[in-house]
C-alpha cells in the first residue's frame, strides 16, 4: 500500500512539474523550429548560464556552452567558431600582449545577461575550524594579490578584523591562468582604486585578462573559476585566497571575504548588495549605432558608492551575439533558438539569479537586452519575435510604479552593526547568500568573533537561498510579505506579471499542450486513486489472501 501511494505521489509531482515547466518556457516556444547553438567564454557567468540551458532544454532549445574564459569566447567569436560569446569586458581592440582583440569584421551586439559580484573566497583554519567571517579592506586585498602582504598574521589583516589575529601561515594567492574576464574585473578595480600598489606590480596602468605572476612568489594559477574554487577548497588549500564570481562559493557552501566599502562597512556580494552598488553604474548609451561601445559599463562610481550596503566589485556580464544577415554560422532556426533562449534568460531566468549567487538585471538593461535581440529579427525576417517584450517579465528588480527604481536595491537590508569598521566582526557565516546579522550562528572559530550590539536586520531563513521581491516572499528589511500586483507604465501596459511567462490561448501550440497536461494531471490525481481504491475492494479485508 505504502509503495503504491509513493508511486502515486511521484506521478502527481512529476505531472505538476511538467505543467510548471511548460508554463515557464518562452512565448511561442511550443511552435518554434530550433537548431542547436554553441557558445564559449566566461566562467564568471557559467553557473547561471548552465542553469538556464537546463531550464529550456525540455522546450526543444538545445544550447551548448563551454567556459574557457572571456578571452577565449571573444577570440572564438572573431574566428566564427561559436554562435555567441560571453564576456565580462568588451573587445579591447588590442590586448595586453599586443594581439588583436576585435570581432575581426563579424557584426555583433553586446547584450547584458546577469549582474554579480567578484568574490574573494579563501581557506583559513584556526585549529581544525574554517574561519567563515573574514574581513579585508580593498587595500589589504590589493597588497595580497601583489605579494606585499604574504602572511595571515599581518597587522593589516588583524586591523581589518578589529584586533582578531590569525595564525602564522603563509598566504597563497590563487589566480587565473587563462584569459579571464574575472581577472579583468579585478585588475580594473585595483587600477582605478589602488594605482600606487597595482601599477608598480603590473609595470603599467590599466587592466589585464592574464594575471601577472611573479617568479618566486607563492601565487598559484588555475584555469577557470571552477578550478580556482576546487584548489582553494581542497585538502591542501589551507592558507589560499582567490577570486571568483560569488556563485561558486555559494554553491559550494564556502566562505567569502567581506570587503570594506566607502560607507565604512564590510559587506559580501549578495544579490542585494550588488543591486545597490550597481545603481551607480553608468551605461554607455550615447551612440546605439556603435556596437563597440553601446551598453558597455563604466564602474568608477560603483567602486566608490557610499551606500553602506554596496559591494564595491560589482558588475555585469555580456553576451556577444551575431547580427549580420549573412553571418556564416547563423540560420533562421539558430537565430530563433538564440532569441528565445535570451528572452527566457532576461525574464524568468532572472528570478533564479539571487539563489544561484548572482543579482538580477535592472529594468533598463533588460529593456536594452530586448532591443539587442530585435536585431536578430531585423537580420532575418523568418525569426518570430512576436508577443514577447519586457512588459511580460517578472523580475525582482522591477518596480512597476516607478521605472527609475530598482526594487531589489530598495529592499536591500542595511548591514549589521557588527559589520562596521571598528566593530564586530559579525559571527554569522559568509557565502550563504543571506544578509549578515548581529547574531552569532556558530560559524566562527574564536570567542572574539561575536557581534557587537544590536542594530542588525532580521536574517531570513531561506534554506541557503536569498529572498526576492516576488509575490508571497519576505522583505528582508521589514519581515513582511511583499510582492503581488501588477505595475504600470505610462501607456497602462503591465511592466511585470506573475508568472513571468504564461500559456496564452491564442499562441500556437499552447492550448494543445495545456489540454494534454491537464488531462494527464487529471488521470494522475483522480483516475489512479480511484483504480487503487477499486483494487483494495477486490482484495478484501486487510490480511486476506485469495
Automatic annotation (TrEMBL):
Q: Could you tell me where the Polar residues compositional bias lies? A: 392-405
The annotated region (Disordered) lies at 386-405, 418-478
Where does this protein come from, organism-wise?
Answer: Nocardioides marinus
Family as reported in the entry's similarity comment = Belongs to the PstS family.
Q: Which UniProt keywords apply?
A: Membrane, Signal, Transmembrane, Transmembrane helix
Name the record gives this protein = Phosphate ABC transporter phosphate-binding protein
Which InterPro entries does its entry note?
A: PBP_domain, Phosphate-bind_PstS
Q: Where is the composition biased (Low complexity)?
A: 461-478
Q: Where is the PBP domain?
A: 27-347
Amino acid at each position: 500500500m505504502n509503495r503504491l501511494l509513493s508511486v502515486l505521489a511521484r506521478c502527481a509531482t512529476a505531472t505538476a512539474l511538467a505543467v510548471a515547466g511548460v508554463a515557464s518556457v518562452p512565448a511561442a516556444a511550443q511552435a518554434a523550429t530550433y537548431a542547436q547553438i554553441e557558445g564559449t567564454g566566461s566562467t564568471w557567468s557559467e553557473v547561471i548560464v548552465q542553469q538556464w540551458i537546463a531550464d529550456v532544454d525540455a522546450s526543444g532549445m538545445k544550447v551548448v556552452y563551454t567556459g574557457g574564459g572571456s578571452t577565449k569566447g571573444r577570440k572564438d567569436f572573431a574566428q566564427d567558431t561559436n554562435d555567441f560569446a560571453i564576456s565580462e569586458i568588451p573587445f579591447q581592440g588590442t590586448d595586453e600582449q599586443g594581439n588583436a582583440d576585435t570581432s575581426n569584421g563579424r557584426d555583433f551586439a553586446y547584450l547584458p545577461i546577469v549582474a554579480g559580484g567578484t568574490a574573494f573566497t579563501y581557506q583559513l583554519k584556526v585549529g581544525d575550524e574554517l574561519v567563515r567571517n573574514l574581513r579585508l579592506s580593498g587595500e589589504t586585498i590589493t597588497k595580497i594579490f601583489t605579494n606585499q602582504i604574504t602572511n595571515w598574521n599581518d597587522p593589516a589583516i588583524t586591523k581589518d578584523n578589529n584586533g582578531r589575529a590569525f595564525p602564522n601561515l603563509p598566504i597563497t594567492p590563487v589566480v587565473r591562468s587563462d584569459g579571464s574576464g574575472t581577472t579583468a574585473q579585478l585588475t580594473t578595480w585595483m587600477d582605478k582604486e589602488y594605482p600606487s600598489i597595482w601599477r608598480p606590480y603590473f609595470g603599467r596602468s590599466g587592466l589585464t585578462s592574464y594575471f601577472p605572476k611573479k617568479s618566486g612568489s607563492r601565487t598559484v594559477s588555475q584555469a577557470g573559476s571552477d578550478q580556482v574554487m576546487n584548489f582553494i577548497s581542497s585538502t591542501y588549500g589551507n592558507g589560499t585566497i582567490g577570486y571568483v564570481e560569488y556563485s561558486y562559493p555559494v554553491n559550494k557552501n564556502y566562505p567569502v571575504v567581506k570587503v570594506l566599502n566607502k560607507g565604512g562597512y564590510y559587506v559580501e556580494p549578495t544579490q542585494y548588495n550588488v543591486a545597490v552598488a550597481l545603481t551607480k553604474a553608468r551605461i554607455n548609451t550615447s551612440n546605439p549605432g556603435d556596437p563597440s561601445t553601446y551598453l558597455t559599463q563604466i564602474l568608477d562610481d560603483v567602486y566608490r558608492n557610499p551606500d553602506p550596503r554596496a559591494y564595491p566589485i560589482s558588475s555585469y556580464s555580456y553576451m556577444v551575439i551575431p547580427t549580420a544577415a549573412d553571418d556564416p554560422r547563423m540560420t533562421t532556426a539558430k537565430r530563433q533558438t538564440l532569441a528565445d533562449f535570451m528572452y527566457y534568460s532576461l525574464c524568468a531566468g532572472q528570478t533564479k539569479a539571487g539563489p544561484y549567487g548572482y543579482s538580477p538585471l535592472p529594468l533598463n538593461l533588460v529593456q536594452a537586452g530586448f532591443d539587442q535581440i530585435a536585431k536578430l529579427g531585423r537580420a532575418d525576417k523568418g525569426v518570430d519575435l512576436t508577443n514577447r517584450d519586457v512588459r511580460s517579465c517578472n523580475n525582482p528588480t522591477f518596480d512597476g510604479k516607478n521605472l527609475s527604481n530598482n526594487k531589489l536595491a530598495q529592499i536591500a537590508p542595511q548591514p549589521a552593526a557588527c559589520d562596521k569598521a571598528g566593530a564586530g566582526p559579525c559571527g554569522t557565516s559568509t557565502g550563504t547568500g543571506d544578509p549578515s546579522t548581529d547574531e552569532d550562528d556558530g560559524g566562527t572559530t574564536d570567542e572574539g568573533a561575536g557581534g557587537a550590539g544590536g542594530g542588525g536586520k532580521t536574517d531570513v531563513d531561506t534554506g541557503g537561498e536569498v529572498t526576492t521581491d516576488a509575490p508571497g516572499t519576505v522583505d528582508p528589511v521589514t519581515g513582511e510579505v511583499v510582492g503581488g500586483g501588477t505595475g504600470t507604465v505610462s501607456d497602462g501596459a503591465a511592466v511585470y506579471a506573475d508568472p513571468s511567462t504564461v500559456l496564452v490561448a491564442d499562441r500556437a501550440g499552447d492550448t494543445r499542450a495545456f489540454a494534454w497536461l491537464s488531462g494527464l494531471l487529471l488521470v494522475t490525481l483522480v483516475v489512479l486513486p480511484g483504480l487503487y481504491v477499486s483494487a483494495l475492494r477486490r482484495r478484501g479485508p486487510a490480511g486476506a489472501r485469495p
